[in-house]
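Researcher: Structure prediction, please.
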Amino acid sequence: MIGDARVNRPTEDEVRLAWRILSWIGMIEHLSRTRASRGLAAVGLPFAQFVVLNHLQWRPNETQTVSRIAVALQQPQPGVTKTVQKLIAKKYVRARPSPDDARSKELFITPKGIEVHRKALHSLVPSYQDLFASWSEVEMEDLFQKLDRLKGWLDTKGRE
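Model: Predicted structure follows.
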């Protein structure tokens, strides 16, 4: 097993399997993003804007800035700035000057942003309704736990 304390170097088979897993995750991400984009079009929300709203929605008590969002999403700051500006123009996000840094703005999802995020999630249902139809709740939870473990590592040690 890769990372086993008894082994200093992974075997060729372990390297191939690890890359295969990561490649599959990449393909799944691409396919799911494409499918999600089709559903989000129904509410007029590009995928990049949905991702930022989703981030703000799941962290409503944290003060957010463009820099913090860029780091969290591991995206270039100029791209996040442009996306946030579009969300502000649509009144889905509101900005106020940061009391700690005059160059920075604190960002908050607005009630209108919360509503469009809710509609966006519902627009995705037809795209994914059948995806897990043949899976048991135990299978889904097992997959989620493994993916969460992988995400946790990539979100901490993977940033080093």
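Model: The chain has two domains: 1-41, 45-125.
Researcher: Thanks, that helps.
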